[in-house]
Amino acid sequence: MRMHLPHFSNEIIVEENPPHPLLHFPRIPPRLPPDQCSSNSSSTFIFRMNSANRNHSLSDPITAALLPPPNESAADREKRLRAEEQAKKISDDIDEMLKAERNERRKKNPVKVLLLGQSESGKSTTLKQFQLLHTPAAFNAERIAWRFVIYLNLVRSIRRILDAISPDYETLNSHILGDDEDENADAASLIISSTDGTSSSSYHGIRGYENYQHRLAPLLVLEQRLIALLSDEEDNEEREATRLITTWSASSPSPGSVRSPKAPPDLSASLEVIIPQNVVQPGPNSPLSPQSTQEISVKTTSNWKKALSLGGRMKSPKSPHSGELAGWWEDPDDPVHILNRCSPAMLDLWKDPNVQQRLVDKRLRLEESSGFYLEEISRITAKKYIPTDVDVLKARLKTTGVVEHTFAFKTAEFRGMTWKIYDVGGSKNQRHAWAPFFDDVNAIIFLAPISTFDQVLAEDPHVNRLEDSLLLWKSIVSNRLLSNVSIILFLNKCDLLQAKLDAGVRLNQHMVSYGDRPNDYDSISNYFRNKFGALHQSYTPNRERELYIHLTSVTDTRRTHTIISSVRDFILKSNLKMGGYM
Ligand SMILES: Nc1nc2c(ncn2[C@@H]2O[C@H](COP(=O)(O)OP(=O)(O)OP(=O)(O)O)[C@@H](O)[C@H]2O)c(=O)[nH]1
Ligand SMILES: [Mg+2]
């Protein structure tokens, strides 16, 4: 039977078996601190006989038994010293053996690291950075599969723009920011206090809206296909047809057909794209379908990466056995063709000054979600497009369930050691899945995006994102189960914080407590560092625990890899220390 000790315990396994036979040999007395002991030439430790410890030692039966008899002869003394020397040698051998055993165990038991933080905080992106750094071959193997997520992200950004310029936008938006608490908004860039000058009753959409809607209509169909592709691994066509029927039949939901957003996810289901149902009914002219404002997530048990990478079914029909890279653009069914044909219309829409003005008026900052791809329309819709590292890092796919990744270290210092990283879903209805990992984890990397002080949660538009991060942080650092777990804090999305401040957004309009301190990057990042640090200081159950805080932009590969290396060394060393391996 194996019993886990609390904290770091996964590395220390208590076996309820008989003790090792060598443990029956006599052990030498424990070494005492230098002020309480000294050694003679035969390396035998002798108590310093001041009156205090003599009294103590005489009352200690083991110590008393080890003291030489007062009338010891020279021959007896030699015999005793020989016996002690032998005992010490055996003891040293045991120590060596235990050390070797611990090293073996250390290699077998992986270091477990949990990535925590609210949804869109950057957990999955951090995991991708670990992959890029430690298993670049695996990262490369998945690169092509990310093409489909990137396409979907781009199509959804276009859809969000169409939503924003639609005559029905105000109706939809009032529902999103209204009283219902359904998980129905991708609120990454919606601001709580909207003070734009556009009157909701007078807005009729921008000029040319119908034209854009018409030219971009094929993308709406493509969106459904991409969702189907990402959800499927085999039997594609049959399942796609079924899924399309299911999807579109949800466009006029009866109240009973709406999935409760609070229902816990069915983690046992193997493969499913979750399309949360929206209670908002689109108007007759609207491009909005029930999915338009919602995020797509693929269950972590889905095998979409494998299914969509080269060697899977996305091979060119001309090379069914070779799995060659060349050729998918020769497949007339590949999604790239629709994107490529719609590329000029997408560019016209994105560059249209009226559209840009509308986005500014509505304070829709698409760059905070996957709007990054809008700046790269021509490159991404090219027929032979292959995602770059940054494209993959910025691809957004919400996590549901828990993803486990194993890394084996090859450096001399940590050779043979493996590291398991768990990436969890961060939205409120996913957090219940975190707790089972708490009693068996060695370190936590907590991500708090500090650019989000003016945003609300997608799943709950009444909650400010930064406030949610602070509350979540407090609950993690004060958790007794985690008191011996190393914690590293990434204050993330610093690049977006900088951009937001450059655009003139003021922190004190959203956090009154900031007062009239300077509204610059250094002052604000320092402020957040202190705020999160103070919470740890006040609530940690372990006052010895050191907290490491990094200011990060985890989409920036060079800087993130430097941070990851130092975090990795810190976690491994503190784990070795806590496990008694150092
Ligand atoms: N510009 C910028 N974008 C970031 C940064 N960190 C993450 N992102 C982007 O933010 C989006 C969300 O990041 P994810 O890593 O998917 O977030 P997550 O924490 O895994 O979210 P859930 O899976 O919903 O819990 C992705 O498109 C990322 O590329 C950052 O530091 N800067
Ligand atoms: Mg994720």
Strand order of the largest sheet: 9-10-5-11-12-13
Number of strands: 13
Percent helix, as a range, is: 40-55%
Distance between the termini: 27 Å
* Mean pLDDT metric: 73
Strand content: 5-15%
- What is the count of helical runs? 18
List unreliable stretches of 5+ residues. 1-57, 176-201, 232-292, 311-320
- Give the tally of structural domains: 3
Oligomer: single chain
Would you kindly provide a written description of the structure presented here, covering whatever features stand out?
This protein is α/β, with parallel strands linked by helices. It folds into three domains: 2-106, no CATH class; 111-126 and 399-578, P-loop containing nucleotide triphosphate hydrolases (Rossmann fold, 3-Layer(aba) Sandwich); 138-248 and 272-303 and 331-394, no CATH class. It contains 18 helices and 13 strands. The strands form four sheets. It has a six-stranded mixed β-sheet with strand order 9-10-5-11-12-13, sandwiched between helices. A hairpin with an 8-residue loop joins strand 1 and strand 2 (13-15). Helix 5 runs antiparallel to helix 8 (217-231). The radius of gyration is 31 Å and the shape is elongated. It starts with a strand and ends with a helix. 35% of the residues are buried. It binds guanosine-5'-triphosphate and magnesium ion.
Highlighted features:
three-stranded mixed beta sheet, Guanine nucleotide binding protein, alpha subunit, single chain, 18 helices, alpha/beta, disordered N terminus, 3 domains, binds guanosine-5'-triphosphate, GTP-binding, binds magnesium ion, Rossmann fold, six-stranded mixed beta sheet, 582 residues, metal ion binding, G protein-coupled receptor binding
